[in-house]
Amino acid sequence: MSLPVMDEEFLSNPYPAFAGLRAKGPVHRMLLPSGLRVWAVVSHEEARIAMTHPALSKDIDTSVELGYFDREMSEGGTPRLEHSSVGRHMLNMDPPGHTRLRKLVNKALTARSVERLRPTIERISAELLDSAEKAAADSGDGVVDLVEHYTAVYPVKVLGELLGITAEHLPVLVGLTAAIMSNDNENAGANMARFGQHIGQLVQEKRAEPGDDLISALVTARDDQDQLSDVELVSTVFLLVVAGYETTVNMIGHGVRALLGHPEQLAAVRADPGLIPAANEEFLRYEGPGNRATLRYATEPLELGGVTVGAGEYVSVLLGSANRDEAKFACPHMLDVSRSTNGHLGFGHGIHYCVGAPLARAEMEIALRDILTRFPDLSLAVPDSELRWRKSFMMQGLETLPVRLRP
């Protein structure tokens, strides 16, 4: 079967379609927008199994070399698994290569480094909300697009500080990241190449003059005599930009929209700001930043959810469906900031759990706290049905979020 039509209704609310799939079974043969045939995993239990199954590999390059990709691509499909310098990161590797890269990155991206950045994140948030408040006042009706003035800028500025990316490179890299993660399959290869060129230049600059930033730390990170190669540095920075930008920009917008659409939940969080970390976990479950995980392929035949996945066939885990699975979460289509969200898959599962999760959580916590504190009368400026969504099956995100900051 093909995906439901990628129209505005599906982009804004894919969950009825996902529920329909779950009702028919946990795993389905499906055609992705690119034209690639996959086994789509829609239940929570099978999603967790798939993301840790030893016969499901993340080394997609090998599957391409073995001819599996050509075999599974439908006639008229648009391939986007090009070999590029941005693709050789840990998310596309199995152990021991994955273990080696993750260990080196963890030496640079520590909980301490994220905590040390917290005052900077708070400053950036406050400055952007100052600017948004001024823009709303200048508009005459108190309305401002929170995506344009806050959610799309906030993680960019934080990434610039964390990674040490200059103002010259950062907007270009973020724009290319958004294009790569969209359904623009035709230009994906060229966009990946451009991203790689920019990061390659940055790596050389940091090698010549290292600073107190994450790219410099990655350049110098060592494990005994081992260190990241230039290709690994470029691809790792790409992964960190995707994890640090896409996750955060979508989650802040989703969280604000969800609370504004559920006044009783908004009142609970306002009454007890200590609920904010739990609320952010519920946002990750209720409407996460990504509809699906990156691809895996079977290195040998395996049974999954009552179907046989053949050797060389691809598997795509639909995170948006798994996080709304009735078998795992009671009343999954209800937003409940006080529920237990243990086991949600918003940041993935297993050895490929999102390496940028600590930074994303810190940014989300600061953002929600600052927005709710600064604007106690915050409200949507348009009906929810008029909000515009990004045309992507990979990422779930708002294009705009018009809000009224003051009555």
Could you name the key traits of this structure?
alpha+beta; 407 residues; 17 helices; five-stranded mixed beta sheet
Uncertain spans: none
User: What integer value in Å does the Rg equal?
Assistant: 21 Å
Shape designation: globular
> What's the number of helices?
17
Give the helix/strand class: alpha+beta
In total, how many beta strands? 12
> How many angstroms separate the termini?
48 Å
Please state roughly what percent of the residues sit in beta strands, choosing from under 5%, 5-15%, 15-25%, 25-35%, 35-45% or over 45%.
5-15%
What does this structure look like?
This protein is α+β, with helices and mostly antiparallel strands. 50% of the residues lie in helices and 9% in strands. It has 17 helices and 12 strands. Helix 9 runs antiparallel to helix 13, helix 10 crosses helix 13 and helix 11 packs across helix 13. It starts with 7 loop residues before the first helix and ends with a strand.
Short summary:
This protein is α+β, with helices and mostly antiparallel strands and 407 residues long. It has 17 helices and twelve strands.
Lay out the secondary structure.
Layout: H1 8-12, H2 15-24, E1 27-31, E2 37-41, H3 44-50, E3 56-57, H4 60-65, H5 68-72, H6 97-108, H7 111-139, E4 143-145, H8 146-151, H9 154-163, H10 170-180, H11 188-208, H12 214-220, E5 222-223, E6 226-227, H13 230-260, H14 263-271, H15 276-286, E7 296-298, E8 302-304, E9 307-309, E10 314-317, H16 319-322, H17 357-374, E11 379-380, E12 402-404
Helix pairs in contact: 7-9, 7-17, 9-13, 10-11, 10-13, 11-12, 11-13, 13-15, 13-17
